[in-house]
Design a protein that fits this description.
The protein has three helices and no strands. It has about 100 residues and is mainly alpha-helical.
Length: about 100
C-alpha cells in the first residue's frame, strides 16, 4: 500500500516537471509564430503553471479522500487508532503497577 502511494506521488511530481517543460516549449513556439509577445509569454507561463498547480492540489485532495475511504472500508487501523491504544495500555499498566504497590 505504501509503495503504491509513493509511486502515485512520484508520478504526480513527474507530471509537474514535464508540464512546466512542455508549457514553456509550447509558449516559446507561440512566441516564434507571433501569437504571443515575449513579455506576454512569462505571464502566460505563470498563469498556466498556477492553473496546473491548482489542478494538482485538487487531484491530491481527491486521491487522499479516496485512500481514506478505501482504508476505512478495509477496516485498517490508523496511526491515531494505534496511538490511542498505546496510551490506553500505558494508562492501564500504570494502574496495575499502582495497585501492586499498595
Amino acid at each position: 500500500m505504501k509503495d503504491l502511494l509513493r509511486k502515485g506521488l512520484s508520478f504526480g511530481l513527474g507530471l509537474a516537471v514535464v508540464s512546466r517543460e512542455q508549457i514553456e516549449k509550447f509558449v516559446d513556439e507561440m512566441v516564434k509564430k507571433g501569437e504571443v509577445t515575449s513579455s506576454e509569454s512569462k505571464d502566460l507561463i505563470q498563469d498556466l503553471m498556477d492553473k496546473g498547480e491548482a489542478q494538482r492540489r485538487e487531484m491530491n485532495s481527491f486521491i487522499h479522500s479516496q485512500l481514506e475511504k478505501m482504508l476505512k472500508e478495509l477496516n485498517v487501523s490508523t496511526k491515531d487508532d494505534i496511538e490511542r491504544l498505546e496510551k490506553r495500555i500505558s494508562d492501564l499498566e500504570t494502574i496495575v503497577k499502582n495497585t501492586e504497590n499498595r
